[in-house]
Amino acid sequence: MPASIDTVLLERDHILADLSAALGSAGGGAGRLVLLSGEAGVGKTSVIRQFAALLAEHRVRVLIGACEPLITPRALGPLLDVAGSMGTSVDYALGRTLAGAGVHELFDSLLADLAAHEATVLVFEDVHWADEATLDLLRFLARRVGRLPTLVVATYRDDELSRTHPLAAMLGDVAASAAVDHVALARLSRAAVAELCGGRRSEIDELFTVTGGNPFFVTEVLAAAGGTLPATVRAAVQGRLARLSETAAAAVEAVAVLGSPAEPDVVDSLVAQAGPGLAEAIDNGLLQSYGIYVGFRHELARLAVLDAMPTLRRAALHRDVLELLIQRDGELSQIVEHADQADDDSALLTYAPRAGARAAALGAHREAAAHYGRALGLAGSRPIAERLALLQAADLEYFLIGEMHQAVACRREIVQLFRESGDKLAEGDALQALAHDAWAAGFSREPRRLAVEAIRILEELPPGPELGRAYATMVQLCFFAHDVESVLQYEHLALALTERLDVSADLRLWVRYFSTAARLHATDDGWEELEEIRRQMVAQASPEYAMWLTVLSPCMAAYRHDPTRALPMLDDAMEFLLENDMLGFLLYLRGCRAHVLLQSGEWAAAEDELTALMADPRWSAVPGIAPQSVLSLLRARRGEPDVWPVLDEAMKQCEEPDLLRLGPLHEARAETAWLAGDDQRAIAEALRGLAGVGPMSDPWQAGPIACWIYRAGGVPPDVPAAEPYALEMAGDWAMAAVAYERRGLPYEAALARLDGDAAAVRDALVAFDSLGADVPAERARARLRELGERRGTRGPRAATRGNSHGLTQRQVEVFELLRAGLTNSEIADRLVLSQHTVSHHVSAVLAKLAMSSRTEVINAPSLRHAI
Hints:
The protein is mainly alpha-helical.
């Protein structure tokens, strides 16, 4: 008989040693979080069980909870599994959380329980199936476990982690923690497979080839009937199922439908005389006992059983399980799972909203949104009050997880329902909420129209808090539109109404914040007042308002080209969000941080930040305008390809005009065209960005865009421009460069010096070279050659001196190939150069000839006669 992998763990001693070392550290008060990864079937669960068995004789509390492969995961499923084995404070806090108190008290009680025990091993298995709240709990523990006598182990399948998998985001968030260890389980070697098999060499070779050394595959194939090697593990599992009695097979099917592991008494409720059948399946090796539970040795076996079941039989079993869970007041997410599998719309409509409410209470907002969304798809014929409750709950959850277009869809339906019911007060309040959500979703024009309509409706009714909220929303929207005059108008209306009605201080602080921020446009003064308002909001325990204001200030500083101020503000804001487990805005702040690092000349750090950000699976749900601007500018300044696709994709995220959000993107598009020598496009892109700019617009956002028109040889329109940009556009390059440097903008200072004398251009060249800005550096060299400067640039050859344009022989060759209509790639092939070098030559040629596009080159006469 070959050895059983359940009793003999081969090539796993080093993993057990790693876990023991981590537990030793935890015993000394320096806890660890071990992330135990491996592909499906590699033996993660077996390692955990072996480790737990080794601890049985020691004074170590071992708590094991697991995630399940449900369509919508159980909220905090692993914690729910172990809460009954912990202190009463955890159970009490869990009850309060389910009643709507939030997760902070629950998480704190868990910490207190872990700190009170001499040593605890807390295992969360299969977290690739975890809900959002469980992943948040792991983030929470990762930052605090180093102070606890606790070893936390989280197992997951690394072969199921796509770039957009929620677990991938969590792994990125905890990667830098000093208390986190990554341990990977490898497949078995051929020698280990041979030891398990004990057969002839030909059998060992075939077994290793078929299974690839995956322990589960090896075990299932070895246990197959007849001693032959089936082609697939699926066939192996189904072959073992076929050897069971009818009762045992029915019991195994019931366990497969229930989910593994299952309670034997629940199986007995579904299958007559299930006990003997379960015992037979255990003897056969298809199932295992886990204390009081019974289940498959691996999820792959369960899936193979499900796959072998006739569709009608599987649906009937799901209906039976559904009825049983409803009778026993079972776990809501499991009820929803079985209702979905049984196609029971009535049960789904009843229990999905309850599951959503519970998931929301536990902080599992993504799962809550999924439950509510499932119910909304079936609620079209339900009474208006029920549909409204569902829509309002779903809207909040979609907003919290960043699914803004889904939130807007909910808000639109809410407005329509109130409109049809004739409830004007509710309609007006819903309209202002829709305006807020629509702006967050990237709409620029519609939100203000919605807010105006809301105010019109509400002003016709007796004044109440709803009108105060509408005024406050209008203050916010007017600020975002740089309409300072309207900000002040609605500020007065909002504050007067809120004081008369004694509305909450939160709303008054919110209005004051935006009116103060609007005054920055004219004075650049008021940052201290903004921070004081934010501190008051935090002190008043207003988490949603505090989160918004914590994020807004540093992002404003970033968009206003103030890196010296923005960088420490961003770092403080990120620390605040981490400490308060407000993770939804972290990626947005990281994008702004990359933007600020680019502004300050720390391009390598900006690229590192950007690389980490765009590797995060949540990236697609984050407004990426600032980081996409950084990506495109780094590529364009270095002469790298694939710039415009990034810029074009970013333009789809928001409606135009929108100087606040799209300003950095318009700057990037204008500069990219300028760097390519296409001055006409640079001017057009800049004018596009200035559409809608008025006399009260932010000069630190309008000025930089207008300045690109000046640099491209155009005449900038009369728009507000901050000091350094105004100086540069007035021709005072020297003072402009000083003003840029004072602001902490070295690249802009170098651009200004391109208009100066030879010494200034040499300074610009040094700056560009130090930054790695290859394309602007080539422009600086071309400018030096125009000035007759030889130092710092390749001196003109005789052929260059022989033509009036200052082109080198190579540049003349490039010019003639451009005239023939060749692309950069084709020119590179013809001249045996890199595309990067050709791009530099093309930029230099266009600059020297004062041409803005390839079209002009194609229509120009040959320059061969000038050589």
